[in-house]
Design brief:
The complex is a heterodimer of chains A (about 240) and B (about 120).
Chain A: H1 2-24, H2 33-46, H3 51-59, H4 61-88, H5 102-124, H6 133-150, H7 158-182, H8 206-230
Helix pairs in contact in A: 3-4, 4-8, 5-6, 5-8, 6-8, 7-8
Chain B: H1 2-23, H2 27-49, H3 65-71, H4 75-106
The chains are: A mainly alpha (about 240), B mainly alpha (about 120).
Chain lengths: ~240, ~120
């Protein structure tokens, strides 16, 4: 009872902290000067049509490298937690004991190629349309989950996942260093021709970086799904 | 008007999340509360970047660079939120695996049954 009251007080305090924001905020007609300079200069400077991608991959590229690192650390943590769990139980028993339904199997056969192609499309076109490496990678990992549920894939090769992850992570840093060497600075994508805005080969190294991120995220999340699926708590 | 609606919605989600975090004892529900809080923060950040009648900050046939400068929403909060969503996903996956580990160790998913973590 006392705890409930405390939670309620906390929510009310949150509301009080937010009230000045509600009272003063309104629709704005303009954006901040920094955003305005991005909007005005980024398309010509980088040749990428999607400005959110320009900000993520180039202007805040170091943040994105850090983000990929956090994702890697989290996926390594999940694998670690589940592998420790396995040693205390009776080994590796898959959770699924009965065959998947026919609906899932047939649907997976129809949808899997489409899902993988869609994921690749999303990260390859990240500089042109909404989307990018993270979104494409998640779509690919969801395809892997469907394949595991339908029994199309029974075992994920951890060696292949690690190699993919390692190569794409090292490739990301290598592209960044190439930018430092050949262009203006670390993660500067302009060492490749920026091309014509709106075509697939434009934006310098942005599509290369986003494809590497897509492969890395796809491999990492597939690893997380696999780690969670393999181990079970013995009743 | 739109910004205010988004801010109120973000506050409601955050309040729901805080309430869930504080009042639930089931670990999975606490994690759901955390996710709601997370989503509320994302919505708040996106609301700050909105401008009235704004379009997506993507160059396309109808909109030139001048159109972007006069009409597109702020791309920076969108980029930050994209980062935040991915980090939130990673943190949620890690929390869920800790929940599984805790259940395996203590055979209980309720936090008040676990005396080890009490102060």
């Amino acid at each position: 009872m006392f705890k409930r009251l405390f939670s309620l007080v906390l929510v009310v305090a949150l509301a009080a902290a937010f009230f000045p924001l509600f009272a003063t905020i309104g629709d704005r007609g303009d954006v901040s000067p920094l955003a305005e300079s991005y909007l005005a200069d980024a398309p010509d400077a980088l040749g990428s049509a999607n400005l959110v991608t320009s900000v993520i991959v180039t202007y805040r590229g170091l943040d994105t490298l850090g983000e990929v690192t956090v994702l890697f650390a989290a996926s390594a943590g999940v694998s670690l937690v589940f592998s420790r769990l396995g040693s205390s139980s009776d080994g590796r028993r898959p959770v699924q004991n009965h065959a998947p339904s026919e609906l899932v199997v047939t649907g997976a056969g129809l949808l899997l190629p489409l899902i993988f192609v869609f994921g690749v499309f999303i990260f390859v076109h990240g500089h042109l349309t909404p989307g990018g490496g993270f979104q494409g990678g998640v779509v690919i990992a969801s395809g892997v989950l469907l394949a595991l549920l339908a029994g199309t894939l029974t075992e994920l090769s951890h060696g292949m996942l690690s190699v993919l992850e390692m190569l794409s992570g090292a490739g990301y840093v290598a592209v960044g260093l190439l930018g430092l060497w050949l262009a203006g600075g670390f993660l500067d994508p302009r060492f490749l021709p920026t091309g014509e805005i709106g075509s697939l080969f434009s934006g310098g190294a942005i599509p290369v970086i986003y494809s590497l991120v897509g492969i890395k995220v796809g491999a990492e999340l597939s690893g997380v799904i696999d780690a969670m699926r393999r181990r079970r708590v013995v009743e | 008007m739109m910004t205010q609606i988004l801010t109120v919605l973000a506050f409601l989600l955050m309040a729901l999340g805080v309430w869930g975090l504080m009042s639930r004892r089931h670990l999975i529900r606490i994690i759901i509360g955390f996710s709601l809080l997370d989503t509320g923060v994302h919505l708040l950040l996106v609301a700050f970047g909105y401008r009235s009648g704004g379009t997506a900050p993507i160059l396309s046939d109808g909109i030139g660079v001048s159109g972007l400068v006069s009409g597109a929403v702020d791309p920076i909060p969108s980029a930050l939120v994209l980062t935040a969503i991915v980090i939130g996903l990673a943190v949620t996956a890690l929390m869920l695996s800790f929940a599984v580990r805790m259940y395996a160790r203590t055979r209980s998913i309720y936090i008040d049954k676990n005396k080890e973590l009490k102060w």
